[in-house]
Amino acid sequence: MGHANKIEKVRSALLRWYRAKGRDLPWRRTRDPYRIWVSEIMLQQTRVETVIDYYHRFLQVFPSVTALAGADLEAVLKVWEGLGYYARARNLHRGAQTIVEEWDGELPGTLQDLLCIPGIGRSTAGAILSLAFEISTPILDGNVKRVVARLFALRGDLKSPGVEQKLWKLSGALTPKRGVHHYTQAIMDLGAMICTPRKPDCPHCPLRNECKAFHLQWQEKIPSPTKKNSRPHHQVALGVIRKRGRILIYQRPSDGLLGGLWGFPNYRSRTRKGLLRALVQGVRKDYGIRMETGNPVGILSHGYTHFTVTFHLFECPCRDGEKIRKRAFPAKWVYPGELKNYPLASSDRKVIRKLSAISRQQSVKR
Ligand code: SF4
Fold this sequence. Notes:
This protein has about 375 residues and is of the alpha+beta class. It has 14 helices and seven strands.
């Protein structure tokens, strides 16, 4: 079968299937480039089911590019809280400001311009152009990469520049000049619903007749399984430092992990024995606060993308007169009831739940 013939057959089978089985998602009921941009950023690394509520909430609070550009970063992070990969929220915020400054608040409709906006890469730009502007532009997100690689039985590391270049070329060849809006949604859906990473549902796939991996029975071999490196593990002392009913929280630097989010001061230690010392010394060095004791109250585990942590929680009462004398990071004393107003990392939310559980247990025992 010729290449052009195969491409034509794939497109028409895909569209027929999409008309019958495609998903009805909130961001598909609009052609507003801003809404499509927000949805595309939220969908990076995150499942559709998780995104839906966040998408509605985000647009309720920031209904336009101008509203988002004019908001405080902290307010944006608060709405994003729990969705993870916070660089995406910071980029959306900076991106909105760029759009207001450079394009009068309207998302531009060309690839070169979209690529100048923080957080928009080639695939996201392709999705915005196809879905909002109906301009034929290929995409190559994780799902599409897999579908295309299987259709053409492309082996090797799909992240390597050589293979990626081939995939872009094939994705470009598959992308139709007309009707790109539906085509893009269709291939995204096929990757999410049928041609899944493990156990693709080939018997129900509309593309199986054209799929080289299916004919070779290579569908489980593409993409080639990668060896998972085991993630390093850290022991961290976390201080719930209290003064007259208030708790010390600090804000993480905006360019680091969980940038801009607030949380409880915490310090890594190589040994378990050294945990309390690391905490006491760290808090003195960073905030000038002198704590005399720290009582261990619990342990909790948390996984990040590249490492895992065991947090050792210490309750650290401070003397009444104790003040923040240094500010390595922005820090403040807040009442427990005020914590809900701050964007906090998921690990810090876990700490709050753990502390509530401990105090409930204690009141039952009394
Ligand atoms: S036949 Fe199987 S491997 Fe090929 S595109 Fe369909 S689901 Fe994917």
